[in-house]
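Illustration: Flavin-containing monooxygenase.
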Amino acid sequence: MAKKVAVIGAGVSGLISLKCCVDEGLEPTCFERTEDIGGLWRFKENVEDGRASIYQSVITNTSKEMSCFSDFPMPEDFPNFLHNSKLLEYFRIFAKKFDLLKYIQFQTTVLSVKRCPDFSSSGQWEVVTESKGKEQSAIFDAIMVCSGHHILPRIPLESFPGIERFKGQYFHSRQYKNPDGFEGKRVLVIGIGNSASDIAVELSKKASQVFISTRQGSWVLSRISDCGYPWDMVFHTRFRSMLRNVLPRAVQKWMLERQMNQWFHHENYGLEPQNKYLMKEPVLNDDLPSRILYGAIRVKSRVTELTETSAIFEDGTVEEDIDVIVFATGYTFSFPFLEDSLVKVEDNMVSLYKYMFPPHLEKATLVCIGLIQPLGSIFPTVELQARWVTRVFKGLERARARFCRPITSITWMSSPRR
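Result:
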């Protein structure tokens, strides 16, 4: 008898998890709280509680060649980097090709996921859902959490003394949709992730002045790399990967800094990262350096205090007449439907074996898919996660290696795009 698997969420991770379940002969049921697939990548004009939100102009940071699923290339007529509407179209074609929609229960909210009383022997879970005001309960052999972590905005107001006196408008980047209404405004964007950079560039075309405040700086790359190829096709090659594995750390650092400063010297633009040798996700933005160069965007240090109309920065400078503050400060992730002890969240960090399994469970029958920040596209990454996990559920693979350290900590970053 096929094992029953509950898949929570019908975004990127949920769709590929469904396919991998079907491929392994499992019996999946996907619960999606909205009326459609796509998750983060389905743009809507209005911000909705409980689901991710993107702005209208979002484009992928990784190319279609490096982002497609392994057995389903993107259509040839698609551009190398996709607008969110094009990527959603790909997911629709993918779901139709593999007949995945029949496994999805739309407009169904997962209220709770609890271990069954005999969990230590059965590994089973009780899932309670609500649809059209009616609650239902069902037992599943395994759970795949694919709900993402770009839902609950993080605005650390306690780190901005004087925010209560500020008379202008302030909001999280999750609320931002397009630059209409910002004409002639002086806007301060706090953060230096992909969303912060995109929003700053877009607003600089309408606002009278945009400031971008960064505590630590960031490497900034163009989507276009050597000979006009997409950056990830140049960066992620077997040869470069081999070099990163065999070269001494000092040589790697020198190569990294040289490569990152090839387009422009970050120190001259006030963007050089504090920990410049940390291999974290760079910002992908083709317009940010030029916008800084001709003054439409001005880079500022950390905000230390806010007044009724101005912002005071760590370097002692003051910018007056600030009309709008956009907090591009990331997200606080949570799993409200899980028992408190299942996935422990501390300081916006989670401990998961292989970035997926809660290490303390007696049975490896609950897994988080897609909660990882790869240096490149997340789509093939979640596919590999789902392929391995479904084999674990089926009993073909083991979730723990005998001599592995069982806990891996993940620090979340703010960017929703790959």
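Reading the tokens back as a structure: The longest helix spans residues 379-394.
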